[in-house]
Amino acid sequence: MFRLPATPAPLKRANLQLLLEYAWDSKAFTATEALSIGLTRSTIIDLLDELAGCGLVTELPNAREDGSYQKGRPARRFEFTADAGIVVGVDAGREHLTTTVSNLRGITISSGQVEVDPGADSPETRRALLRKVVTDQLSTTRHTIDQVAALCVGVPAPVDARGTSPAHVEGFWQRTNPEFATVFEDQVPIIRVENDALLAAVAEGSVGGGVDCSDFVTFLSGERFGAGIVVDGRLLRGAHGGVGEMLGLDLVAGAEGVDGLGLRAARLARTAVEQNAVAPNSALLGVPPHEINGKLVLEAANEGDIDALRIVAEVGGVLARIVGLVASLFDPERVIIAGGVAPGADGLIAAAREELPALLHLPVPELVRSELGAGVVSVGAVQHALRSLRDGILDL
């Protein structure tokens, strides 16, 4: 991994950060092109030589050597060294751990997922599992933990700025985030632990449906419902990380708690089947009731099954009330439905759109589904790790 020199003086530090940000966002460039950041040519060349010496910038063949030279002195060409280190993002869900390894430009090198027994989620087990899945994924790319510049873990719990979760009456938050911030503290220089819905919003704001939007909400709907909320371009957290935890839905009539959209659809479908309230030819009868899940219901609705359509319309109505509540509080321009339910959520979104105008006095936000799929949290974890690295790289 790259090795930085001793902490520079304040002015030099600011100039290094400015040039690094330029290089990070650029393709191959010359010192002349880098003048756009406002530094002198001599300062830029000195800084480029220093960054090249520590491995963060690579000097490329000049114009004469690559065959594009015409006349005059050939310009020196440089490029940010994307493989100078790696970052790791982990979605540490209750039933799975998804690990993504990327280079310093956020390009995925490898990704893998392991299933977890929810009944064996003691703090000790989860800490050991996190270490194992990260180490195993790194081995597939022939990297070691010493090459990881930043690591971010997403968990289904509120998380404060220090990476810790508050006490939960049933101990759930302590099991899902058993001090993950300390697992690699002696090996990885930058470690972040964040709420999974917050990371879904980071993903959408970086490479998804929120890229061009400064006010949006990302609803992460897995087993439970959470929200990543961006207002005026700032991601909201709260004192204990609880802004997007959505626990207030337990207090809202018609919202029916924090269960995820797929879980709600599956529960309604199972009840309908058990009460013989579906048509004889319904796709919901194709599997035993206990095997009905949200994906099956959404797929059946998309194929026109009348009973599945009725259930999707009902769940869409609940979604409308949840969106209406959050929209009345935070006034977003856009609401993004993310997570495993997103690929089949068109019917839910259509139903919610029909009901929203009657629920709001403010302009109705645009309601869309995420294109990032079930891996949205690990994508957000990688992006958050990268941003943390870019902000703190000169402190390593």
Please explain how this structure is put together.
- Helices cover 37% and strands 18% of the residues.
- The strands form 3 sheets. Strands 6-5-4-7-8 form a 5-stranded mixed beta sheet, with helices on both faces. A 5-stranded mixed beta sheet has the order 11-10-9-12-13, sandwiched between helices.
The percent range for helix content is 25-40%
Give the DSSP E fraction (strand runs of 2 or more residues). 15-25%
- Mean pLDDT level: 93
Strand order of the largest sheet: 6-5-4-7-8
Overall morphology: elongated
Number of strands: 13
| SS field, number of helical segments | 12
N-end to C-end Cα span: 12 Å
Query: Main beta sheet, described?
Result: 5 strands, mixed
Name the structural class: alpha/beta
Q: Return residue spans where pLDDT drops below 50 for at least 5 consecutive residues.
A: none
Query: What is the N-to-C succession of helices and strands?
Result: HEHHEHEEEEHEHEHEEEHHHEHEH
Q: Please give the radius of gyration in angstroms.
A: 24 Å
What's the topology here?
Elements: H1 10-25, E1 29-30, H2 31-34, H3 41-53, E2 57-60, H4 63-66, E3 77-80, E4 86-92, E5 96-102, E6 108-115, H5 123-140, E7 148-155, H6 172-176, E8 190-195, H7 196-207, E9 216-221, E10 225-231, E11 234-235, H8 261-274, H9 294-302, H10 306-330, E12 334-338, H11 346-355, E13 366-369, H12 376-392
Parallel strand pairs: 4-7, 7-8, 9-12, 12-13
Antiparallel strand pairs: 1-3, 2-3, 4-5, 5-6, 9-10, 10-11
Helix pairs in contact: 1-3, 7-12, 8-9, 8-10, 9-10, 10-11
